[in-house]
Design goal:
- This protein has one domain.
- By secondary structure, the chain is an alpha+beta fold.
- The chain contains five helices and six strands, in the order E-E-H-E-E-H-H-E-E-H-H.
- The termini are far apart.
- Helix 3 crosses helix 5.
- The protein has a four-stranded mixed beta sheet with strand order 4-3-5-6, covered by helices on one side. Strands 1-2 form a two-stranded antiparallel ribbon.
- The relative contact order is 0.19.
- This is DUF362 domain-containing protein.
Length: about 160
């Protein structure tokens, strides 16, 4: 992407800071390690391709997982990503959604990638859409149109009701 006045960067070179989850009862993780640049950004956009694995959507909010230094969550028994998945990845994604409030979600769905057992192998189909809006709303719209199982959206809906009450 080449947009004037828009800075894109690789967060791997950033300083990591610990940020509290604002939910009074976190579903999985009470604090997250995030790149410091996130906290000083004026406008945060998550851009994700449309990926479907075993009928489950990997959309704009799930894309936020790539910001996490997975090594911070590993243990002697579980490696980097296994540790996050062992907590219930939908619960982790829900907590992350509230901790990192991104302003805009874009699902680039001109094509959709569909995989089954191996998420690195699959088929590409033309789809011809781009979803743009608040991340929760675009993930809901894409999930509904495609009939996807996106469990973290149900968890976010429930947590939003409690958070806003």
């Amino acid at each position: 992407y080449n947009f004037p006045r828009v800075l894109t960067l690789d967060v791997k070179g950033c300083i990591w800071v610990e940020v509290d989850n604002p939910l009074s009862k976190p579903l999985a993780i009470p604090t997250f390690w995030v790149p410091n640049v996130i906290l000083s950004s004026d406008y945060l956009i998550t851009v994700a391709p449309l990926k479907i694995s075993d009928g489950r959507g990997s959309l704009s909010i799930m894309n936020l997982l790539t910001l996490l230094p997975s090594s911070k969550y590993s243990s002697e028994e579980l490696n980097d990503w296994e540790a996050l998945y062992s907590l219930g990845i939908d619960r982790v994604i829900t907590d992350l959604y509230f901790t990192l409030p991104f302003d805009l979600g874009i699902i680039e769905a001109r094509q959709k990638f569909i995989s089954h057992d191996d998420p690195t192998q699959g088929e590409v189909e033309e789809y011809g859409k781009v979803f743009i809006g608040e991340p929760y709303e675009v993930d809901c719209e894409a999930s509904e149109l495609l009939g996807l199982k996106t469990e973290y959206l149900d968890l976010i809906k429930t947590a939003k009701a409690e958070f806003e009450a």
